């Protein structure tokens, strides 16, 4: 056990990054709206995430470089290099800035469930000081560089919520036959396509590929450590995916269609905790929000530093400037209630385009002997990689079709 704990790496951090407030809400809405029918989308997401994150971790350990650094150095054509860097920076930096407001708002939502809505009016503006509080906590954790210790506490809080949903899913006595059908027989109920895209998109997160490749080289330096990184990745992603599936199963037992806030989401926990449900969910939402509020700016800083050739020293002024900027924008948007609909829409479109692009870059790089030598992809890994690439391209086209009403199909 001691050896296992010692070799826990970025896997839980990656899992905590995709189990943010958005995932909790989206999985709840999927369960409420479609029952067990969309479990297959989550199962597909888990498999795709394991394959891609394993590649990112292997790249980071073998090359001792981040994904954005490798892309910058391996694309020789200056036009393609510029386009790739612009696309990555747009999607990750601007996208994470937009999502940061959602992460902080999720943490606020958790606290508001317990202490109410503490708005204060300053110069005619209504400010939610809980957003500022969460922003300050995230800032301190990132700035001091000791966030890893405290983040384990935060991940533990997310695990607390996870256990709650797991036990709730069991206590609600779900129909096992229907669960297996939902998990292994793909179905597309009416008006469910955006929910399916959301479930996959909230799990297979492009910025996690950059984050994972950057963080594994901080944890491990020897190629012999690959076995630890692989186990760390698989265990963390599977557990994170199971949590999401349990949220869907728990939410399927909610009778109400009006899910608007954390108190409504807590109905999924009532079979286990009764009136205490909202407090457990509040703790989980707060933990999920603040953990994601740390990882999103951190990933953006790694991506920006790698793309622009700054190096990836977490204590450098340029590195800190990036995550501070994203954190401040997130706090302002969340605390003042600004609805950055167009920015978030851009982020969704950019990430929809980015996922197949990054998956393509990753598969290409993972087959380069000059980068990975004997640790490049096997035939089986490439087969899985290309299947995921094909699915991500279809999702990208579907996203563009829905957002811009192209009526392609």
Trace the largest sheet across and list its strands. Answer: 1-2
> Structural class per helix/strand content?
mainly alpha
The helix content, as a percent range, equals: over 70%
Secondary-structure element order, N to C:
HHHHHHEEHHHHHHHHHHHHH
**Main β-sheet: number of strands, strand sense, barrel status?**
2 strands, antiparallel
Please provide a written account of the structure.
This protein is mainly alpha-helical. 76% of the residues lie in helices and 2% in strands. Strands 1-2 form a two-stranded antiparallel ribbon. The longest helix is centred in the first third of the chain and has 38 residues. The termini are far apart. The mean pLDDT is 81.
Helix and strand topology:
Elements: H1 2-6, H2 11-18, H3 21-34, H4 39-63, H5 67-74, H6 78-115, E1 119-122, E2 125-128, H7 129-144, H8 147-171, H9 176-184, H10 193-201, H11 206-219, H12 226-251, H13 262-265, H14 270-273, H15 277-307, H16 317-336, H17 341-365, H18 369-372, H19 379-404
Antiparallel strand pairs: 1-2
Kindly list the characteristics that best describe this protein.
409 residues; mainly alpha; two-stranded antiparallel ribbon; 19 helices; 2% strand; globular
In short:
With 409 residues, the protein is mainly alpha-helical.
């Amino acid at each position: 056990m001691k050896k296992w704990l010692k070799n826990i790496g970025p896997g839980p951090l990656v899992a905590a990054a995709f189990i943010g407030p958005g995932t909790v809400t989206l999985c709840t809405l999927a369960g409420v709206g479609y029952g067990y029918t969309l479990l297959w989308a989550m199962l597909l997401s888990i498999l795709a995430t394991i394959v891609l994150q394993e590649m990112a971790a292997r790249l980071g350990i073998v090359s001792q470089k981040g994904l954005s650094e490798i892309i910058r150095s391996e694309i020789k054509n200056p036009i393609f290099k510029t386009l790739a860097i612009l696309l990555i920076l747009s999607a990750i930096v601007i996208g994470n800035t937009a999502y940061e407001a959602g992460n902080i708002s999720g943490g606020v939502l958790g606290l508001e469930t317990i202490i109410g809505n503490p708005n204060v009016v300053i110069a005619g503006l209504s400010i939610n000081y809980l957003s500022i509080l969460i922003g300050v906590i995230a800032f301190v954790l990132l700035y001091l560089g000791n966030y890893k210790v405290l983040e384990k506490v935060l991940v533990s809080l997310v695990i607390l919520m996870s256990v709650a949903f797991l036990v709730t899913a069991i206590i609600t006595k779900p129909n096992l036959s229907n669960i297996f059908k939902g998990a292994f027989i793909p179905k597309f109920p009416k008006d469910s396509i955006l929910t399916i895209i959301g479930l996959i998109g909230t799990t297979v997160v492009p910025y996690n590929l950059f984050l994972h490749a950057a963080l594994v080289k901080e944890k491990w330096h020897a190629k012999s450590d690959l076995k630890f990184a692989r186990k760390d990745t698989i265990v963390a992603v599977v557990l994170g995916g199971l949590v999401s599936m349990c949220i869907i199963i728990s939410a399927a037992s909610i009778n109400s269609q009006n899910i608007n806030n954390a108190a409504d989401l807590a109905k999924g926990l009532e079979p286990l905790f009764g009136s205490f449900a909202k407090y457990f969910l509040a703790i989980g939402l707060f933990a999920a929000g603040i953990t994601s509020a740390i990882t999103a700016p951190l990933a953006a800083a790694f991506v920006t530093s790698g793309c622009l050739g700054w190096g990836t020293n977490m204590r450098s002024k340029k590195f800190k400037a990036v995550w501070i900027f994203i954190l401040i924008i997130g706090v302002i948007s969340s605390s003042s209630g600004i609805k950055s609909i167009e920015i978030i829409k851009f982020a969704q479109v950019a990430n929809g385009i980015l996922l197949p692009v990054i998956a393509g870059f990753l598969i290409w790089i993972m087959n380069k002997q000059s980068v990975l030598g004997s640790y490049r992809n096997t035939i089986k890994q490439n087969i899985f990689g290309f299947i995921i690439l094909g699915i991500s391209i279809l999702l990208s086209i579907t996203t563009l079709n829905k957002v811009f009403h192209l009526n392609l199909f």
